[in-house]
Amino acid sequence: MSPYDPSAYPSFAVTVDLVVLTVRRHSLCALTVRRGEPPFQGRWALPGGFVKADEDLAAAAARELVEETGLCVHDPAASEAQGNGAHLEQLATYGDPQRDPRMRVVSVAHLALAPDLPAPRAGGDANSARWSPVETFLGKDGDQGALAFDHSKILEDGVERARSKIEYSSLATAFCTPEFTVGELRRVYEAVWGVALDPRNFHRKVTGTPGFLVPTGGTTTRQGGRPAQLFRAGGATLLNPPMLRPEV
């Protein structure tokens, strides 16, 4: 007989919390939901929920993403006609014993990125949802105590992950539609970093890495002015050399 006795160990729950980021009206915005039930009833929080007994963490995060945004996770094998879906990656684990007043709860947070998303819908124990500029909750002008649980810290970590990874990876293209201009990609960097970038230097850097951007052969005038060349994300996942974030 096995000497292991499950009752000898305290039970605890596992949740997934989502830092869902998008660029709306040239601002980096996060999805937040107003809690409809205790604890922290009426407070804004990140979307998420408890992991089901038959789910692994990735499946739970993908399920919550669909429930909160209607988005499926990006499938690299999907055709362009099916759309890009959302980029989803594991962010960090949060396990302070006091983080949830109900019981011991460990949260595995995930970062989700997608192009300009539509008005959100509330689900689960939330009674409303909204997109908020991240500065609403973070930074010197934000209220870092405004989010329930430890979600301000989780949001801060998620925003910093996005800001740092676009320096050297292709993550910024996850904020773009399948076809985009260099100017539209530059505005993603500007929104995520909160700075203005020189258009010529930016164009040289993102087009200088082979395979980072691939011309589609088309043009667009949706930004006004002369027709601009359209690109899609290429197979290169790293920017070399990296595009370092300007000091603010």
From TrEMBL:
Native species: Streptomyces indicus
Cross-referenced Pfam families: NUDIX, WHD_NrtR
PANTHER family, sorted: ADP-RIBOSE PYROPHOSPHATASE, SLR1690 PROTEIN
Membrane-crossing residue ranges in chain numbering: none
Domain Nudix hydrolase: 10-155
InterPro entries according to UniProt: Nudix_hydrolase, NUDIX_hydrolase-like_dom_sf, NUDIX_hydrolase_CS, NUDIX_hydrolase_dom, WH-like_DNA-bd_sf, WH_DNA-bd_sf, WHD_NrtR
Keywords annotated in UniProt: Hydrolase
Protein name per its UniProtKB record: 8-oxo-dGTP diphosphatase
GO MF: hydrolase activity
Similarity annotation: Belongs to the Nudix hydrolase family.
